[in-house]
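Changelog note: in this version the structure field was regenerated for every chain. One regenerated record is shown below for reference.
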Amino acid sequence: MIDGFEGYVTPTIEEYAQVLRTGMVVLDANVLLNLYRYTADARDDPLAVLAELPDRLWVPHQVLTEFWRNRDRVLRDPRDTAKTAQELQEIRGRAVRAVQTWVNRVSLTPQRASDIIDQLSAGFDKVLLNVDEFKDAAATDAARDTNTDVVLRSLAPILRGRVGEPLDEQDLAVALVEAQRRLNEKVPPGYMDREKDNVEGAGDYLVWEQSLREAETRHSDVLFVTGDVKEDWWRTEAGERRGPRVELVDELRDRAGVRLFMARPAQLISYARAVLSVTVREDSVQDADRVDTFLSEPGPHLEHGGWSQEALTYLLNRLTDEAPRQALVLIKAANQDGYVARSQVYEIGGYHEGRSLRGFTRPINRIVQIMRDQGTLPEQAVDLFWAVYNEDSPAFGVAAGFQIHDDVLPLFLSRIRDRESAAASPS
């Protein structure tokens, strides 16, 4: 009754214990990056758990690639202190404007209006001072000098000899084609990263493929530990994560003849406390669970997806200088309810028919990432523009067109209306 349907079966505690003792424990990049998000005291226990898995622990090469790619970003604000301060400043601005509007409606005296606004600002200042106390100065130092990074110093001996090899050039090319197919057909994992570009967008699949290959070699069950909560990893019922996607369970069984288990970082710590000879404090479990919960919760609703006219203007100005074809295509899409067809991109760009549009959004994504890094765009702002693949695509893996995010489209339309009004006004 269960054979062939393991993806629907809830593992027992005994089965988790068995895979911890004899299986292969694979870490996702977010597990390593989360070590920067834990408090200093709570960080020791997860590291102790990893140290108790020397012969079972394994890290795909792609995981370390993503760890180093994202390490500086996480270290800039590991506990989102700066982001919270920025959000509070934005709320303060909206609150002051709301009070000013109300003051005008009720005709308060200038002195009374000033007193109210001063009281409001003083309240925000007090809260911001308290938030500022939690800035991570040590994390900033660690980002600047890897020799001062306690996480790196602790991880180095644990991961020595436990990191897989990268795919060779030929295997990587095949894997990237397969990653694109999965994205197009919504086959897990990785299809939730459609806005990302090329190898970065294929990251989840590369982690999975490298794990499959190692499992084929070891012939042992796999416990995949990840803080990722997207639907292309987890089977969800009634809003509850029940286990890995059935497709992933089946694929691992078909490729390696073994079973797939999945756990969040906090669960790994709890299981290890019960199974391995390692002491884990309850505070450490709670801290890991706090980080898991924080990262899995949807962020606050951001007006226009976190974009502003200033941010959009900055992007378009840079594109006009650095990638003028992409700038023109964005404007064309904005004039067409956010979508531009492949044929129109060829026409605007003056491209010959055989030219590939793979990587067309790369200049946009590059500038957007610079804006996030500079703090001129919130980290959680939506991705602006991406390739669309559908049944009408003329060939496999070929984009049918490109789409602007619905939340940002009103900013484009407002910009277009303002320019049309300015052009129509008498000089």
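Spot check on this record: The beta strands are 24-27, 57-58, 222-225, 234-237, 240-244, 260-263, 339-341, 385-388, 401-404. The radius of gyration is 25 Å.
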